[in-house]
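Shipment paperwork, digital attachment
Item: protein structure file
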Amino acid sequence: MATIDDLKIPSITDMSPDEAIEYLRVLRLSRNTPKKNRQSKSTIEKKAKAKAIPKPSKSQALELLKLLGG
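Attachment content:
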């Protein structure tokens, strides 16, 4: 059966102060991963509505066709 001594992780007490500080800094940074923001459906729908272009009415469409020469 494995014991703690079998693990190849050095003890912080056995490290020099500089090594221990660097080791702890690396551990802290590896655990601080940002969480992905999930958007709710309502937020996505609001953004889609804001980007949506309104459809022209029939009279506006006829005017545009006349301007384009169609």
